[in-house]
Write a structure and sequence with these properties.
single chain; six-stranded mixed β-sheet
């Protein structure tokens, strides 16, 4: 039986700013419907890799394939069409401060669909309800907590029913309780939407809670030095650096 085509395939990808190389020759695959975590130490290029995967940074070399189709080797028009499949939550939430939560979530629907204002409002209410923010449609970002802003950003990310979600440090800055709630929400959305989820994270509790698979980026080697389920890599990773990184997290989770 032929091996299934991965939802996402990163092939021979090198990330650089001018002559400064961030990561080189990255090669990994993300299966449909899995939660895939990009992890590693500070400054290793986790968010830079995510930007290359969603079209915000052209790689110095290599490509990203979605269901076997080239992303960087195709036309701008095709790349924009592929990009419509993505929902993205940036680390800061990136909500417009002058717009209500309903207006923030409704913006992609207004830009990319021909839905009527009533239909947009109905979808906005549904998406906010999915992330636990029903009734907060008329609130501004400054009027809600950091955890609620993350959830509002997630509601906007799923506004167009994407089949691939990219989440950049979704738990950063949250207390442990809100971080766990957000982890649970990510898994619920993955299951309810049949979505593939790519998460950039250094939060070890979240990594152990949600990851099906992962890649570990090393700043010193400028390369990926481990691939696999983090719960297995704790013991099986060839790199002592990876085992040390994850065992610290396993100890914190057990405590």
């Amino acid at each position: 039986m032929a091996e299934a085509t991965p939802r996402i395939a990163v092939r021979n990808l090198t990330l650089a700013f001018g002559t400064f190389v961030v990561q080189r020759d990255l090669d990994f695959a993300v299966a449909p419907d899995e939660v895939f975590v990009i992890m590693g130490d500070s400054g290793c290029g986790k968010s830079t890799l995510m930007r290359a995967m969603i079209g915000l940074l052209r790689p110095a070399k290599g490509d990203v394939l979605y269901d076997g189709q080239s992303f960087w080797g195709t036309s701008d028009e095709t790349r924009m069409r592929l990009n419509r499949r993505f929902g993205t939550l940036f680390q800061s939430g990136a909500l417009w401060s002058s717009m209500t939560l309903a207006e923030n979530v409704g913006l992609p629907l207004q830009q990319f669909t021909g839905l009527s204002p009533k239909q947009v409002a109905e979808i906005v209410t549904l998406k906010l309800a999915l992330v636990g923010l029903r009734g907060f449609e008329d609130y501004y970002p400054s009027e809600i907590s950091g955890g609620m802003r993350k959830r509002a950003g997630l509601a906007r990310a799923i506004a167009l029913d994407p089949d691939i979600l990219f989440l950049d440090e979704p738990s950063a800055g949250l207390d442990p309780l809100n971080s766990r709630r957000l982890d649970d929400l990510i898994l619920e959305l993955r299951d309810s939407m049949n979505a593939t989820v790519v998460v950039v994270s250094h939060e070890l509790a979240s990594i152990f809670a949600i990851a099906d698979n992962s890649v570990f980026l090393c700043a010193e080697a400028k390369a990926a030095i481990a691939h696999g389920n983090p719960r297995e890599l704790v013991e099986t990773a060839e790199s002592a650096k990876v085992r040390e990184f994850l065992k610290r997290g396993a100890t914190e989770v057990a405590a």
